[in-house]
Each structure stands twice: as C-alpha cells, then as structure tokens.
Amino acid sequence: MKAKILIVDDEPYLVRLMEYALKAEGHEIITAGTGTDAIKKAETEKPDILILDVMLPDLNGIEVAQYLRAKPEFVHLPIIMLSALAQVTDKIEGLKAGADEYLTKPVDLREMVVRVTMLLERRALTQPKAAPPASRGKIITVCGPKGGIGRTFTATNLALALTKTVSRKIMLLDGNRQLGDIDLALNLRQTRTLADLLARVDRLDAELVRTVMATHSAGVDVILAPAHLADLQPVQPAAVRKVASALLDMCDYLIVDTQAVIDDFTETFINIADVIVLLVQAEISTCRNAKLLMELARSDGQTLDNLIVVLNQFNPSDELQPADIEKILYQKIAVKVPANHELVQYSLNRGVPVVVSHPKQNVTRAIFQLADLVASNDDKRIAPAGGLFEAAGSLFGRRTS
Ligand SMILES: Nc1ncnc2c1ncn2[C@@H]1O[C@H](COP(=O)(O)OP(=O)(O)OP(=O)(O)O)[C@@H](O)[C@H]1O
Ligand SMILES: [Mg+2]
Q1: pLDDT for the residue numbered 127
Q2: Which of 160, 269, 270, 284 is least buried, going by the fewest C-beta atoms within 10 A?
C-alpha cells in the first residue's frame, strides 16, 4: 500500500534516514522542520500519514497533533509520534493529543516501517468507503455486417433525435478509419479529426478534444474521420479505448458510427459499447453475417443484453419477412426503419438529416423510436411537447397533448 507520508522533525540527518527507509517501501515523502510548517504541509499536501517529532523549534508535536485533530479533515489521519522522551507520562500526553502510535528515539527504522504499514492497512479497513464513481456516460455503437447498410444515416439521425429525447450532452464520433462521411451527412467542416486524437493518445484532454470537435447546430459535438487516406496509421485497441474514454468524459452519450470492415478498430468500438445498435437488412447473407457479428461480440465478453436490432430499408413486400430474420438471429427486431430511398438520399446528399428536415416522415418516426429505446431508463428524458415531435411521441404511446 503506497502512501504520501509527512515526516516532521528538526534533525535533518534523522529525517533523511526515515525518508530513505520509507521511500524504499515505495512511499512518497514530504518533510517539515517546524510545527508551523507541519500544519501548512498537512493542509496543502493532504498526507496519508504523519510522523511527528515532539520537540520542534516553534509549536511542539503535541500542539500540532491537537490542532490537526480538531479539524474534521484530519480526524482520521494516522499520526505516529516520535520523541526522545521515553517517560510513560509523555507517551500518555502524546496519545491523548491524538497520536495513534508513539515511538521513542533512537528510532528503530524497521519498527517504524512496520508501524506505518500497520496504520495504513488499518485505516484502509476502517475508512468510510469512497462514494461510488459518478455515473458514466454511455457508448452507443452503431454497426452492421456490410457496407452501405445505413450506419451513417442511422448514427447521425440518432444523435440528433437524442438531443430531443433526453437533456443530455450528445457526441457523435465517425469511427471510420478511412472514407468517413459524417462531415457530408451533417454538412460540417473541420480540418482536425480523429487522426489527431489517435496521434496524441497520451496527451488527451478536454482542451485537445475541443480543438478537434465540430459542432452541429442541433447541439451535437462531432469528431470527424481522418480526412486523408495518408492519415491512415496502424491503431492499437488501447488507443481507441483511450480516445473513447476521453470523449466520454465530455458527454453523456457517445454515438459511434462504425466502418463496414470488422477489424480490431471496429471490434474495439463493439467491445466497449454500452448499447450496440446492429443494423440488418432483409437478405439472407446479411442476416447470417449479422449473426457472426453477434458471435464475435459475445466471444469478446459482450452479454448482448443491450443489443438493439434495427431492420433498415424495410419493405413489407420483401421476400424475407421480419419473423424470418428474427428466427435466423434468435433475436427480436426492435425497430423497423422503412425503405425511403428518395428521402434518405436527398437528406444525405444535402447534409440535412431527416430528423431536422422531415420530422413527420415514417423513417424519422422509426429513428425516434430507436432514440427512445437507447434512452430508456434515463431520468433526464424530455417530455414530448407536441408539434414537431407529436408524431414521434404518439408512436411510443406518450402523451402528446
Ligand atoms: N432507410 C433507408 N431507406 C432507403 N435508403 C437508405 C436507407 N438507409 C440508408 N439508405 C441508403 O443506403 C446508402 C448507404 O447509407 P449509409 O451511408 O448510411 O450506410 P453506411 O452503412 O454508413 O455505409 P458505409 O459502408 O459507406 O459506411 C445511402 O445511399 C442511403 O441513401
Ligand atoms: Mg458510413
């Protein structure tokens, strides 16, 4: 158990000896030579344990311990008091002032190291458990078993639909290592891209991410795909995870549009997903390959509890019916997005998502249905206000008046 230890003593030689012995155990050491300095360092450095000499030039160790113990933040700070005064009465005075242990000088360094270790272990057991981490955002990976199945259309519209479904920060990532096209689908310009983040994985912070982000007028932050084929560098899954994690620190929902090729890069986005949106089409080969994709996700440890199967370009006259697809996949189809070539092409070509331009169209209703599923259980859902979203609301059985 490594700790930050504050050693307070006015004998530099002894301080150096103790520092040496404790550093050898992997601890971080800070030192102070007076009582006042000890209090200052305790307050600024927040040590895990305090080794405190009694005889100090200004405030003595007893006074320092009493002062610190009176403050709520130091009530549990382990204190080892150190002094040449070996009288029992002195020890009692030190313990009464709040010391947990009392060592007499000359200090046996081995004993001191053991006492430090014991105190740290005891504190770890008795300290109130840290509050659970603040709830983390969700990664929603939109994937599919073949090119052109509608990932970009779905991911872009889903991101925009979510801004109307939940009061949450939504970010969209073009997870295509090459030839991504979210810039066109949303009519966005940005010279810096995902390539810039992947090239700086060890220095990722909010400031850097902001320089790479483009923002859509609907309020979605977007990270675009590498702009040039020459930007294509080998990428390790660990780098992808770091980028996703840095982005997730800045949003509540990170929607990832993936590429058709299922390589390590795409597989990582599937592995780290909290929700997988799997697109299928009414074709035997596509459904068989969707099943293979599910198997891959499962073999990587995904339970698929949060899998949402979306049948895209659905046409009721298709030979392969939804019930047939469900039998092939052993999985329910959650959303059917109707085929509407004219509208979808119009929208993608102009860079205006259907959620914005055609809120009442059947395709858009299906996207809102998907957004509703993604955001289910979210306590920050926006109550539908009618008007623009009346159609979508009524589809989900919401009150729309
Ligand atoms: N519901 C739909 N109805 C009609 N056409 C659709 C529908 N969804 C997608 N398309 C069409 O499919 C084509 C591919 O769509 P999109 O670019 O979203 O797919 P993708 O899976 O992202 O493709 P890529 O493999 O290039 O990344 C587009 O021409 C689009 O118009
Ligand atoms: Mg695409």
Answers
A1: 63
A2: 284
Ligand number with the minimum distance to the CA of 151? 1
- CA–CA separation, 334 and 327 (whole Å): 14
Task: Enumerate domains of the chain plus CATH numbers.
Answer: 4-126 (3.40.50.2300), 138-395 (3.40.50.300)
Ligand 1 atom 16: the closest Cα is on which residue? 150
What is the distance between the alpha carbons of residues 193 and 223, in angstroms, rounded to a whole number?
6
Ligand 1 near 42 CB (within 6 A): no
What is the C-alpha to C-alpha distance for residues 296 and 350, in angstroms, rounded to an integer? 35
Task: Pull the structure tokens for residue 291.
Answer: 């099943």
Which residues sit opposite 80 in a β-bridge? 51, 101
Residue with tokens 């078993």: 145
Å from CA of 288 to ligand 1 middle:
19
Q: How confident is the model at residue 129 (pLDDT cuts 50, 70, 90)?
A: low
Torsion of CA 165, 306, 299, 336, to 10 degrees: -70
**In the numeric block, which tokens belong to residue 203?**
């220095």
> 243 CA to middle of ligand 2, Å?
20
The confidence band for 326, taking pLDDT boundaries of 50, 70 and 90, is: very high
List, for residues 165-184, the tens digit of each pLDDT value: 999 999 999 999 988 999 99
d(CA 62, CA 255): 58
